[in-house]
Amino acid sequence: MPATSLDQVVSLCKRRGFVFPGSEIYGGLANTWDYGPLGTELKKRVQASWWDTFVRQKPEMMGIETAILMHPNVWEASGHVSNFGDPLVECRKCHARPRGDKLLEEKLGVEVVAVLTLDQVQPMMMAEKIPCPECGKCDWTAAKKFNLMFRTQQGVIEGEGTDIYLRPETAQGMFVNFKNILDTMRPRLPFGIAQIGKSFRNEITPGNFTFRTREFEQMEIEYFVAPGTEEKYFQEWLDATMQWYTDLGIAKERLRIREHTNEERSHYSSRTVDIEYHYPWGWGEFMGLANRSDYDLKQHQEKSGQDLRYTDPDDATKKFHPYVVEPAFGCTRTVLVLLLEAYTEEKVKDDTRTVMKFHKRIAPIDVAILPLSKKEHLVAKAQELYKKIVHETKLVVDFDITGSIGKRYRRQDEIGTPLCITVDFGTIGEDTAQGAKDTVTIRDRDTLQQERVAIGEIREKIAEAWRK
Ligand code: GAP
């Protein structure tokens, strides 16, 4: 069973150094989160797995990293200045400004709300007698679109700089570099550009921990294909995404595919599906896959005056704008889902233990070395072993010396370390009752089985555990 409430995971994250409330010593800044040592390691592993699967293992894929601050015309061309917003209504009594569509969705379900136009939101709210979440009255103004982009100024003199935006998606960095990629890499269709990076949206209703925040990380791909072939690649990316998620240990029954209705789709998309996850609060978006057609390249060509067509390498007279299939993953949202999936409470004899059952490929720590006592020569032997494993395997190894061995096992379970290696007095040849000289105890996180193995066999034992 995964986590049944978000609070379980939020509290473990704080207690064990995965995620901390942002700016905490100043009382916090609402809905901002800092990744601690274990959360950072977990996030880096998610990114590494994504990059390896979707960039390095695919010859037609290229990874880039583009600037967060971009020319303001980018957002005019992409349609974000005019179209990127949520429908806000205002309560005439207390002036609260919630998202009308969300309040309707809670009452009527997403299927109904997805087909409403902006003009229909307020009349429907009045007809359904939707109360204000703040004051309980039902007296709403008409819905207005509120732009979600963060605006800032470039330039040192206040009021004299140029207005620019923090990017609300990483995607545009790839479209504006399309020509650079064509000129330098000479790719043939189909090919893709990928990047991982921060995006910013002035979300009206952030919340549910790191599910919806104003600053978050995305992992996006723009996959350029010949017009007419986009449906085939759309399906291939849907299958590949599902495979990646399940390979990371996410249960199939908590994933589902939901097709967007015409009204719901973003301004640039001619088909979108969401892969949804069953969160403790219900089904919600996990990632989105869109057919962006040739919308972005044409828009940027018009606004920039640059030729953004692709030339058929076998027939230079054929020039056209490729179509784009876009798998858009949330990196921080993936980390949240992996935390929710891993969270397990289970009975062990008369006790309950909390254990994070991360897939071995993404657990933030691979192996923990635990000296049984703080005696100097025992610690020295354990340190020697630590160095050997780090050097020989490149695994992430924790060295944990604080507290009783029981408490240390409990901590390692809570951070999801697949294997613990205990160095005891048997290891240093001082107590044969604990084990033979130069042997250690290896404990498995999931089965709780302990096995005595020779130090020389540790590498093989770790490899064996990883193969299971
Ligand atoms: N380029 C297309 C695009 O950005 P999106 O559906 O708006 O599409 C893609 O975003 C993914 O980014 C989402 O499925 C989600 O995983 C993540 N995401 C979007 N907004 C987010 C937010 N405010 N906080 C955390 N993750 C977010």
CATH class of the largest domain: Alpha Beta
Q: Sheet bearing the most strands, described?
A: 7 strands, mixed
Count of domains: 3
Radius of gyration: 26 Å
- Based on Cα principal axes, name the global outline: globular
Low-confidence stretches: none
Concise account of the structure shown:
With 468 residues, the protein is of the alpha+beta class. It contains 15 helices and 22 strands. The protein has three domains: 6-77 and 150-341, 2-Layer Sandwich (BirA Bifunctional Protein, domain 2), CATH 3.30.930; 85-145, Herpes Virus-1 (2-Layer Sandwich), CATH 3.30.40; 365-467, Rossmann fold (3-Layer(aba) Sandwich), CATH 3.40.50.
